[in-house]
Amino acid sequence: MVNHDHVEIIDHLPVLLKEIVQALALEVGNTVVDATAGRGGHAQAIAKVIGSQGTLVLLDRDQHNLAFASERIRSLPDAPRVVTAHANFCNVADVLRGESLRADAFMADLGFSSNQMSDPARGFSFANAGPLDMRLDQSTGESAHALLARVTESELADLIFQLGEDPFSRRIARRIIYVRDLGLLNSTADLAKAVVSAYGGKARQSRMHPATRTFMALRIAVNNELDSLETLLQVFQQEIAGFWPLPRADPGSRVTSGLGKKNALDEVAGLAAASASPSQWLDKNARIAILAFHSLEDRLIKRAFTSWERQGWATRLARKPLVASEAECEANPRARSAKLREVRIVGI
């Protein structure tokens, strides 16, 4: 009998593995959060460093992957204590407070696992026909099919343009809605066919499959990925603000944008007061590493990290994001779009 789970482990290669472990500056006994556990590739490397004295907190929206990653780590010799949470990474503060833990390091890989892409039932890929699902957590939320059933042509065009950055978003949306209204939009194959049809002759000139950007845009929308990332960064900012006895205001940050100087100071002070409590969940010198695969994600991360550094709350470990080497991209083509940004908190 073929062990399919074993095959999946081999097929999924964690991106920028050595670079992430190095950026986190791990030590034996650390408490580390892998907020996107996936198949446990990054988590395994982290576990080997922090050892049996450490604690590894695994979060994932995919219940099956979370269980798989947890078992993979627990089976290691000298495995750390493993804490799991079937949760969105933006809920990391609640998870850690609930376990009375304080993280020394945090990482998130904003991509998705190979087994999710290769399983037609998940609906992430147009390689094989499957249901229009695309949910990372199949136990809750709106599927891609449900989303496509309710949006207007204009809303869909905006979604594809803003999240997929496809210049042909208008004609794509027009074709998808036409097919939908005929009752012929029922699978990933139907969706891919509609997009290719919208491209027309330009489909042959495209460097990537014409449906790539549309599928990506729908996946981001279905899973509220950008909203979740923004919430995570705000949760971090609120915690970090509490490390400082005096508030520092950055007019360019999300927390203070649109406010006058006094109101901005008041808001940051309020955040600091709210965070400075016995339920602190982040170490004052914690390291944070976030791996993005989309320009919109990377933009949000860069803006937040730059703001924290400007306020004296953190130090960016590099001005530019780390990218995969040519050798890694050859071995794992999905690494080509990856950008890794890291900061170290410098709380008092």
Keywords:
348 residues, alpha/beta, Rossmann fold, DNA polymerase, domain 1, 2 domains, globular
Structural class by secondary-structure content: alpha/beta
> What overall geometry do the principal axes of the alpha carbons give?
globular
Q: Stretches where pLDDT falls below 50 for ≥5 residues?
A: 1-10, 255-276
Helix content: 40-55%
Within the CATH hierarchy, at the fold level, what is the topology of the largest domain? Rossmann fold
**Count of helical segments?**
15
How does the major sheet shape up? 7 strands, mixed
Tally of distinct domains: 2
Oligomer: single chain
Structure in words:
- Helix 3 links the parallel strand 1 (31-34) and strand 2 (55-60).
- This protein has 15 helices and 7 strands.
- The protein has a 7-stranded mixed β-sheet, with helices on both faces.
- With 348 residues, the protein is an alpha/beta fold.
- The protein has helices at 4-11, 17-24, 41-50, 63-74, 92-98, 114-118, 144-150, 153-164, 169-181, 188-199, 212-222, 225-241, 261-275, 295-310, 326-331, and strands at 31-34, 55-60, 81-86, 103-109, 282-292, 314-316, 339-345.
- Helix 2 (17-24) packs parallel to helix 3.
- The protein has 2 domains: 4-114 and 224-345, Rossmann fold (3-Layer(aba) Sandwich), CATH 3.40.50.150; 142-222, Orthogonal Bundle (DNA polymerase, domain 1), CATH 1.10.150.170.
